[in-house]
Structure formats: structure tokens, C-alpha cells
Specification:
single chain; mainly beta
Length: 311
């Protein structure tokens, strides 16, 4: 997997930085290997990536290229050398925090998602010099490196709207949801769910869990309280749409999850449950639901298997 390195620096941009104003928009070249000379190892160029339309930059005094670049108008991020890893992802600010998290990996200009994943994820090829991303208004991470060689680039790119562009509103409650391919069984019967890993926890579609438990003593119904604008979970009642709704496995792709911010009730009383919305469906932490309704959950890491017992 090519993107192992950038996760090590995610969140580094919360550190104090040294501001360097740029008085006119210009293209800035970035070197993430300042402590090496060209020709050392895989380093064949003085700079690894460039950013266009930069109007201000904030860098750090470490040996790595980390910091924030402010750009005005359409911005190009270009690989200036053949790199082991090079990419751009959308970013969202953590609520009540001073750092950003990646929410969605982007595809370079001229590639389809399938082509990019095949060439640079599955076949693990180096990214060729000249590979380019064109960015509109928004917040992004840009990164590039030569692999295991100590150093690299991981910068935050803040793109503001240029003339004739519309500035997107900052997103503060989104996070990446990693598709979960674990097998699941309920009372010994294999089942397929659409599930995601968010911050190291398994999240399952709320209504899918309600369907799965419909014929067990741990059944619960899901209702929407229009007046209070909250989800109401009712324990001991069979899910009212169990005969019409079906459980789908999902498409196997990662998604962008948005924190669910409306209230949640359990039998009419407020319940403190963390949930996310993905493609207009609400996903709840599996272990929270199991604890709430008395379902035993077991995890076998060696088999990548989740076992649910509801009797």
C-alpha cells in the first residue's frame, strides 16, 4: 500500500508554524528531503512537488516539508519527480479541534478511479513525474515521498475561490469511513452487512441491525420522531419494516461519513450513542448497539470474523 507514510504525519499541521507571506500568487516548489543531496538513494530532483497560485505559506523548521499553503483560484499540485507515493485528499477540520483529517482520496487528472487504483494501489507502481491534480476551492492534504527514505512532504492546502469561482463552505464534521470486509455471523448463521471502520470502531447500518435481530429476543424497532426530530429506538419490539426492508452488503468502497448530530432516544429517553450518516443512512457503533440490546459480540482477528449471539 503506497499511502502508509502520510498517515504518520496526519495531524502534524497542528504544530506551531512560521508564516512566510507571498505578495503575489506564484508557483511554489517543495522539497521534503532538505537534509539529503540530489543523487542520494532515489532522490533525482531538488523538489518533489509544486503548488500553483500560492499567496501565503506557513512552514515548519523541521527537516520534513509540513505546513500550510494558501492558494487563490484553481490550484495545480504536480509531481516534479518520479515518486513512490504522491496524492491529494480532501480534508475536514475536527470539531472543536485545531487540526484536520483526511476525508476522501482524490484521483489525478487524466485517470479514472479504477485506473488509478489498479496502477498505483494493486500493482504498486511508482507515480510518474508530471502527475497532476487540479483543485477547486476547499481544504486538502497533499503528500509525496520516495518510500522508506527518511523525509517527505505532507502539507495542508487551503484553496480559496478565485475570480468567477464559488467558495465552498468549510466542512467540520466529516471523516473517512473505511469499508469493513469482515465476515459476520448471527447465532451461527453467516450474514452480509454494509459496514465501515471509523476511528478504529465498526459501524453498521442501524436498520440492517434491526432487521437481523427482528426474530430474536433482542429485537428493537426504529422510529423517527418528527416532532422532536430524533431517532427513537424501542427495545423489545420487532422492527416494523423487517418484512419489506432488506440487508445489502454494500459496494466495497470507502465513503465519507458525516457525524450524526440529531438526537437519539431509547424508549423515549435520551441515549448517548455516537453515529454517522453515510449516503443518507445512519450507521451506529456495533458494540454500542450490542451492549444496548443485550447481544453478545465476539471478534476473531485471525479469521477477520465478527460473531453475534442473540438468544
Amino acid at each position: 500500500m503506497k499511502f502508509w507514510w502520510k498517515s504518520l504525519l496526519a495531524g502534524v499541521l497542528a504544530v506551531s508554524t512560521l508564516a512566510t507571506p507571498v505578495f503575489a500568487a506564484e508557483t511554489v516548489k517543495i522539497n521534503g528531503y532538505q537534509h539529503y543531496e540530489v543523487g542520494y538513494g532515489a532522490i533525482t530532483a531538488e523538489y518533489q512537488i509544486s503548488l500553483s497560485n500560492v499567496v501565503k505559506e506557513e512552514g515548519t523548521d523541521t527537516g520534513y516539508a509540513v505546513g500550510t499553503y494558501y492558494c487563490q483560484g484553481s490550484t495545480e499540485v504536480v509531481a516534479l519527480d518520479q515518486l513512490d507515493a504522491f496524492g491529494v485528499s480532501k480534508a475536514a477540520k475536527v470539531p472543536d479541534g485545531d487540526y484536520y483529517l483526511e476525508t476522501e482520496f482524490l484521483v489525478p487528472d487524466g485517470y479514472t478511479t479504477e485506473e488509478w487504483e489498479t496502477l498505483y494501489y494493486e500493482e504498486d507502481r511508482p507515480v510518474p513525474k508530471g502527475t497532476k491534480y487540479t483543485l477547486g476551492p476547499g481544504v486538502y492534504y497533499a503528500y509525496g515521498n520516495y518510500g522508506p527514505l527518511d523525509g517527505g512532504i505532507n502539507v495542508l492546502v487551503m484553496v480559496e475561490a478565485g475570480e468567477g469561482q464559488v467558495q465552498s463552505q468549510p466542512t467540520t464534521n466529516q471523516i473517512q469511513a473505511i469499508y469493513n470486509s469482515a465476515t459476520v455471523s448471527l447465532n451461527g448463521q453467516p450474514m452480509e452487512f454494509e459496514a465501515y471502520n471509523i476511528n478504529g470502531n465498526n459501524y453498521f447500518k442501524l436498520r440492517d441491525v434491526a432487521i437481523a435481530l427482528a426474530n430474536t429476543p433482542q429485537c428493537f424497532d426504529v422510529a423517527w420522531d418528527q416532532e422532536k426530530q430524533v431517532i427513537n429506538l424501542v427495545s423489545g419490539q420487532t422492527y416494523s419494516r423487517a418484512q419489506t426492508d432488506t440487508i445489502a452488503k454494500g459496494d466495497g468502497q470507502n465513503k465519507t461519513a458525516t457525524a450524526y448530530e440529531s438526537g437519539i432516544l431509547l424508549n423515549g429517553n435520551p441515549a448517548a450513542l455516537e453515529a454517522y450518516t453515510i449516503n443518507n443512512n445512519n450507521f451506529f457503533k456495533l458494540r454500542d448497539l450490542c451492549d444496548l440490546f443485550g447481544v453478545e459480540v465476539q471478534w476473531d482477528a485471525a479469521k477477520n470474523q465478527i460473531t453475534l449471539i442473540a438468544k
